[in-house]
Amino acid sequence: METVVSGIRPTGNLHLGNYFGAIKNFLKMQDEYKCLFFIADWHSLTTHPHPDNLQKSVRTILAEYLACGLDPDKAPIYVQSDVKETLELYLFLNMNAYLGELERTTTFKEKARKQPNNVNAGLLTYPTLMAADILIHRANKVPVGKDQEQNMEMARKFARRFNTIYGCDFFPEPASFSGSAEPIKIPGLDGSGKMGKSEGNAIYLIDEPEVIRKKVMKAVTDSGPTEPNSEKPEVIQNLFALLKVVSSQDVYEFFDEKYNSCEIRYGDLKKQLAEDIIGFTAPIRERIKEISSDAAYLERVAKTGAEKARESADATMREVRRLIGFR
Ligand code: TRP
Question: CATH 3.30.70.260: does it fit domain 3-184+295-324?
């Protein structure tokens, strides 16, 4: 069975866009592949030398993924820094990673521009650490977005290079894949293309009903259609896109017909949408609260995850050392 490795950045709380994008995919993948999920806490040091409460952000993201249905019995979930074997592979990969190619990476150039006073070696070697995360389990597939494509190309290059230098066929070339289910793009409520944390237009899974109502009621609309069956402008399409994922088919069709006959009242649509979002997120929010308050459970998940990941990492590293010529 093919192995899938997926890294999660511990940045803040999950929103609906994350849920219908990456997470739904993870839920499907964990049934179809040998998956390993990890929280990339080392990587955060490349941009934040003093991570604000690193432990807390790691636990938060772990609790939220578990609440969404990631199942540690199906696939280990571990914290990157619990599997030190990765560092040894990172070192070996760095010995055959060239300054020129690392400097040419777009993400490096971008971050170097953003933080000119902290262009550190970790930032430069971000792609080798990411390659180590993947190759340590000899993964075949990695679900990543477009923004990670160059890092994935580097990972493949490092895998090939290792095989060539040490005359072996040890590392598979990890393929990027969009996942088992085509991710649904969730729009923002401000009329902009995409829901995102940095866009400031997100509905979080932990948002209380009152907060959700306020956010939805503030969503941008237009003055309404004047011709029957007219095409929906983007801001209206966005509202319908949300209805599509959280409401029943009936509700969706009801408002679609109202739109087509120019009788739509956006206030009614928003009220319904808010209630349906609340209905959808409420059970997840409850589970997040439950899981977050159970420190022992979180500890156990992370510990078991790390043990399983280390088993796989250890097997890889024994072979890597032998191939290079150590012991
Ligand atoms: N670079 C990824 C991101 O920014 C996170 C990541 C680190 C990752 N290591 C990984 C993703 C290994 C997949 C596999 O989202």
Answer: no
